[in-house]
Amino acid sequence: MISGELPQTLDPSVQHEEVVEFPDNRLLIDLCGEFDRNLAEIEQNLSVQIMRRGNQLVAVGEEAPAKEAVAVLQSLYERLETGKTVEHGDIDRELRMGGSDKGTGSRDGDQLEMFKGGTVEIKTRKKLVEPRTEAQKAYVRALFSKELAFGIGPAGTGKTYLAVAAGVSMFIEGHVDRIILSRPAVEAGEKLGYLPGDMKDKVDPYMQPLYDALNDFLPGKQLAKLIEDKRIEIAPLAFMRGRTLANAFVVLDEAQNATSMQMKMFLTRLGEGSRMVITGDRSQIDLPRGVTSGLHDAERLLKTIPDISFSYFSAKDVVRHPLVAAIIEAYEADT
Fold first, then answer.
1. How far, in Å, CA of 254 to CA of 334, rounded?
2. Using one digit for the tens of pLDDT, what is the confidence trace for 271-295?
3. d(CA 27, CA 85)
4. Quick one: CA dihedral 241, 246, 247, 251, positive or negative?
5. Helix-then-strand count for the chain, H and E
6. Residue 300 — left, alpha, or beta (φ > 0 → left; ψ -120 to 50 → alpha)?
7. Taking the model in full, what pTM does it have?
8. Which of 64, 159, 259, 334 is most buried, taking the most CB atoms under 10 A from its CB?
9. 255 near 280, Cβ under 8 Å?
């Protein structure tokens, strides 16, 4: 909104102006976006008006939202100064963070060193992955600082996506030799019958979300070669028995569908030089009635061990379509 009129939602008696100046006019154009769509998104979310005066942007509205709008604009401009672009997801992240995610560390060099007070982001071959909420930010830090980390919360909060991204980052930087991704092969409330094909054909439908995540982070030919060489393995949880997983980044997804015995078996596979991440959603247990979820037992038994981290997510951390958060909140309210 670039006109001089205040939107109807703003009360002229409480309007407050916050002015911020941006020296590089080229970057300012990128900050505003095509047809000022970036400014419009910030205006809509914070109920402010943003006006342009030369190389200045003025946020008008109630004092707190106006200050927040300026903080978001400054963070996005700093992002542009590093040579990055500003997309919808970047604006969404800054709005969730209140424009406060401005790390002080170097963006180059080793990922593990960078996290010691630096910007929280994950570098992969195809893209840079940045957490969009404070809970995601804390979770990513845990992924790089703890040998065993749990991510627990509803669908769409980035638990598995961020874990796989961290695994790829640690793999390409040489901190681990292999990536092992696993899930319990449990049907989600429906019987799929006898699937055709060999064992890989039968279990691949259960593993597809893990393939989807990997495809986001690694070029197709490189991913295929790494899978062929077994440097990246995607396998059902039942295939983990009897193995010792050394120098590997190991992810167990949908852990709420592991039994207590399966969870104990999996956790005791942790070998020298490895990291393990367990993700799950306690509201989506597909185990037969009367069977205790291994995720529930692990949380109860291991929560007091200092070297194990537990990260929790809620509907406000959902980064899929906004309706997903509303759906989750509606179901939670009915329980």
1. 23
2. 889 999 999 999 888 888 889 999 9
3. 10
4. positive
5. 12, 11
6. alpha
7. 0.71
8. 159
9. yes
